[in-house]
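Notes, Module 5: Reading structure tokens.

Key idea: the token line is not a picture. It is a compressed description, and you learn to read it the same way you learned to read a sequence, by spotting repeated patterns. We will look at two proteins. The first is printed below with its tokens.
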Amino acid sequence: MVNHELSKERLRQRGLLQPATAVRMIEENETAQQDRRQRPWALLSLERWQQAFLDSPALTATATSSGGGGGPRMRVWVDLDNSPHVLFFTPIIRRLEREGVEVVITVRSFSQTEELASAHGLKFETIGEHKTPGHFVTRAAATVHRAFQLATYVRGLHPDVAMSHGSRALVLAAWMLGIPSMTLYDYEFISSRVFNQMSTRILLPSVINPETLRRQGLEIRKFTPYPGLKEEVYIYDFQPDSSVLDTLGLDSSNLIITVRPPGEWAHYHNERSELLFRTLVERLRLTENAQVVVLPRTQEQKKNLIHKYGMGSKPFRIAEQAVDGLSLMWHSDAVFSGGGTMVREAALLGVDVYSIFAGKLGSADQALASAARLKLIREPEEIQHLSFNKRTRTHMHPKGNGETREFIYQQILDFTRVCSKAESSCSRA
């Protein structure tokens, strides 16, 4: 059965996996001394999903039969896949709603995404949870499983368009339901094949070279560059809240250092980042009068920080729940992160920020480093020589303006308007 359903010809037609790699996994399972059934089973699950959804025109017709969202009111589906997406999409969702657009929100149970969505007053449905399988195929199967869950939930709601910031499960679900999708992402070296092949429109920061995207298989006709960085969507009018200090029991007269550990499960994670992180932990442990606030990404990572790195006691304070990260960084004297959103947020807030991400540097972070707003740490010795001082806080002047938010909002609204028309030529990809 496996050899028939996962033949080279069928895998080649699907175009999602390299046939030779898949066949090798199947053969290894048949000849291996130990049980390696998980990988072929994941491959078979992926194929069965494609048979059930991509090969079923009746299902696509069911999802899109309303013709423009079932009436004159436009309907947008937004999937919040990770914690930063809550801050990014909230002002956009609010404005869409003021324009009379109905917004359907799904959330993945991961990190503090649900907590933050609730704190921002969003009405959402939690669909699926985070999984950290170690192999590409099993990661793909986990994504496919959540896509199936999303499709099952959303198909009766008849959204006109779907959008996310890097949610592969949404892109897959929208593709199989025939819903046009818009995808944003801001790190050009992620595994982007699903986005490139199945998204209708893709938005990325203008600092990313289109030629890099073209080499990765992106059809440039789908690509729209936006000005600035995604963090400017919500930072330019941010106002700090000092109550975060009381919430965390922090003394503003002593050093406050905020740390976000690297995400070890990310496919672009680099083992050198872990070395840098361990060096940082030992350096901070010796920092006099320091209050080190640690923001773990998951409960599993929190346990790991305590047992593997010994961060369960002073000077470390591991956050027990979601906190106002922007306000915390504003009141911090230094911020360290394994790359990603937090380093860019801190840089835009004007805080001393250090990236210990050792993977391939993305254009967004490179732009901030070139402007001397982000410090890149590449060697453990650099951490040993760091010194920390209380910084003087002045009136709030975030680095940014409303241009990024306005541009992205208009792109989303125009995309929705075009695709919601019954006679629209808007296609799913």
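Here is the second protein, with the sequence above and the tokens below, as before.
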Amino acid sequence: MRSSSGALGLSDECSRAQGDSDSARRLPPGRASVTGLYSRAELLDAVRRWRRLYGCAPVRSDWDPVRARRRCDPDLAAAKAGRYRSGQWPSADTVRNHFGSFGAAIEAAGLHPRPGGADVRWTDEAILEALRDIAYEQGSPPRPENLDDPSEELPGVEVVVLRFGTWQEAIAAAGLEGE
């Protein structure tokens, strides 16, 4: 088997600046990854890169759009599917085939699986304040795509929906409904 910096270059990409989309690893559109396409080291790099980009370890539905559709709010499922289809991430099945379970891969990467997918860094009030700030800046209630790139200042869509149940419930809790 090839080295972890092999033909597709995930390890090289991970050592570059975070979020550099020009150097992101991509698979052909609509092609799910297969076990032989990634080494264990590359999968661990992908888990760690997700953590750097989104502030928390991935959960299985982040890399499995079918599971996301079955288990998540429609706005959240669409956001997860869009990120997965970008071709930058291995499939959840590939991870499970290498490590036995998705959670085992997260632990092997030196991270802790999210209990129920929760991100404990964001309090309810901090999330609502971030939503209000976006609404103030753009003059209308935020949409899920406004949180496609979570940061220290913005929670991810997943965090919002996991805390409030649905995107619309979060908007209502922030007092932005009907604006």
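Summary for the second protein:
- Residues 1-35 have pLDDT under 50 and may be disordered.
- The first helix runs from residue 10 to 15.
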